[in-house]
């Protein structure tokens, strides 16, 4: 598992997950494992040689309109609540309340100063990177 200050996970957010699943399967050989999220929606864990390497997060559902396709990295932090407070004080914007994903971790989606989105995560202990 990655530690504080290291990138922990990345996911491709897209309105057309099948298109990009096919693209990465054909070009780099990824296979996928479907995971049902707490909201009942499907998330795709991308696998390279059977090992998780990232995810595909579908945005083709209500409440996610206007989110552009692109890669979203997640930076591991030691204490999400304390670190987000520091980030906000330093000019970041918290895009939605900090949230928990069981067996994954506690997460925040931030807009950094300058307008770039990034995810932060305090991973669940003893877990390899999983979907967010």
UniProtKB/TrEMBL annotation:
- Name the CDD domains on file: SgaA_N_like (cd07247)
The record ties this protein, via PROSITE patterns, to: VOC
What the entry lists under InterPro entries is as follows:
Anthracycline_SecMetBiosynth (IPR052164), Glyas_Bleomycin-R_OHBP_Dase (IPR029068), Glyas_Fos-R_dOase_dom (IPR004360), VOC_core (IPR037523)
Q: Which domain of life is it from?
A: Bacteria
User: Which residues constitute the signal peptide according to the record?
Assistant: none
> Pfam families annotated for this entry?
Glyoxalase (PF00903)
Domain VOC as annotated: residue spans: 6-123
Q: What is this protein called?
A: Glyoxalase
């Amino acid at each position: 598992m990655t530690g504080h200050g290291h990138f922990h996970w990345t996911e491709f957010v897209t309105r057309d997950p099948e298109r990009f699943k096919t693209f990465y399967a054909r070009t780099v050989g990824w296979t996928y494992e479907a995971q049902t999220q707490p909201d009942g929606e499907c998330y795709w864990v991308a696998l390279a040689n059977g090992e998780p390497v990232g995810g595909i997060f579908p945005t083709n559902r209500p409440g996610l309109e206007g989110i552009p396709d692109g890669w979203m990295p997640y930076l591991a932090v030691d204490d999400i609540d304390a670190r987000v407070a520091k980030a906000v004080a330093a000019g970041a914007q918290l895009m939605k309340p900090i949230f928990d994903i069981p067996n994954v971790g506690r997460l925040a989606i931030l807009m950094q100063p300058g307008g770039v989105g990034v995810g932060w995560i305090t991973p669940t202990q003893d877990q390899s990177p999983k979907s967010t």
